[in-house]
Amino acid sequence: MQHWELILFFFTIAMIYASVGFGGGSSYLAIMALYAFPFQEMRLIALVCNIIVVTGGSWIFIRSGHVNWKKIIPIVVVSVPAAYIGAKWPIKQDTFFVILGGSLIIAGLLLWIKTKQGDESAKSDQRKYGLATDGVLGGAIGFLSGLVGIGGGIFLSPILNLLKWDTAKKIAATASFFILVNSVSGLAGQLSNPPPVVDIRRIAALAAAVFVGGQIGTRLSAARFNVLVVKRITALLVLYAGVEVLYKHLHNFFV
After folding, report:
1. Quick one: how far is CA 183 from the chain centroid?
2. What count of other Cβ atoms lies within 10 Å of the Cβ of residue 119?
3. Which of 8-12, 21-25, 123-127 has the lowest mean pLDDT?
4. Do 239 and 26 touch, CB atoms closer than 8 A?
5. Euclidean distance between the first and the last CA atom of the chain, given in angstroms as a whole number
6. Better-scored residue on pLDDT, 125 or 251
7. Is 188 exposed, middle or buried (0-12, 13-18, 19+ CB in 10 A)?
8. What is the three-state SS of 96-150?
9. pLDDT one-digit tens code per residue, 152-178
10. Number of structural domains, the chain?
11. Distance between CA 60 and CA 69 in Å, rounded?
12. Higher confidence at residue 207 or residue 158?
């Protein structure tokens, strides 16, 4: 495998994201885009790594009682099939990179926004958003997630915080479960029409790195990291990668 430093990058991303219940899909894609990975393999790797990392965090949230199934189901019942459709959607390389670049820029801006943390004692029935809103939001993010190859939590979590959808911890639990089910659905969609050639050794090495990083991260308290600093650093990485990807592929998209 070339560029062995990628193992360290993926390990670090997984450890940090797992400590707050996320998978790191957008950051994996950002790194791979800078290294010019084949775009079909990028999506596959990002989703595999997402599933490995976020499974532990989702289980912890469920076991701790932070998952509100009544509020999560309307979101994921639409997002899961949408993610599968997005993953199967035929897409050209330049189109993929333009959508990826735009998605990374939007994700970076959302990450940069500092949202006020909700009162953990607030009652969940105080929100004003209904089933239709949750379904549309979940479906739109799910389709984009399947198309690009991420779990979607990087979009969902900031939006739910801005909407004051629930307490910060329950939003994190919702995003974690959302990432897991969308990543599984997106991966199923991709494997129904797999890339002609994939580097199995590279996928295995990066999967092993995120497994170890994710296991360490899930055992660390979120207090070990300054969440705002992590968000800002990640936002800069994702923004830079998004601009770089658009710069390289936007011209070809219109030719």
Report:
1. 8
2. 11
3. 123-127
4. no
5. 34
6. 251
7. middle
8. HHHHHHHHHHHHHHHHHCCCCCCCCCCCHHHCCCCHHHHHHHHHHHHHHHHHHCC
9. 888 888 888 888 888 878 888 898 899
10. 1
11. 15
12. 207
- Those residues with Cβ within 8 angstroms of residue 81's Cβ, 6 or more apart along the chain or in another chain: 142, 185
For tokens 């939590």, what's the residue?
A: 153
Count of H helices and E strands in the chain? 10, 0
Domain extent at residue 12: 5-254
CB 106 within 8 A of CB 145: no
Rounded CA-CA distance 157/131 in Å is 17
Rounded distance, CA 136 to CA 133, Å?
Answer: 5
Q: Is the pTM of this model over 0.90?
A: no
**pLDDT tens-digit series, residues 231-252:** 777 778 788 888 888 887 776 6
In sequence order, what E strands does 174-248 have? none
How much of the chain is in helix, strand and coil states, percent to nearest 5?
A: 75, 0, 25
Q: How far apart are CA 26 and CA 232, in angstroms?
A: 14
Tokens 């497994």: give the residue. 211
Nearest to residue 179, comparing CAs of 57, 65, 71, 64?
Answer: 57
Cα dihedral sign for 18, 23, 26, 29? positive
Which helix (H) or strand (E) covers residue 174, if one does?
A: helix 168-191
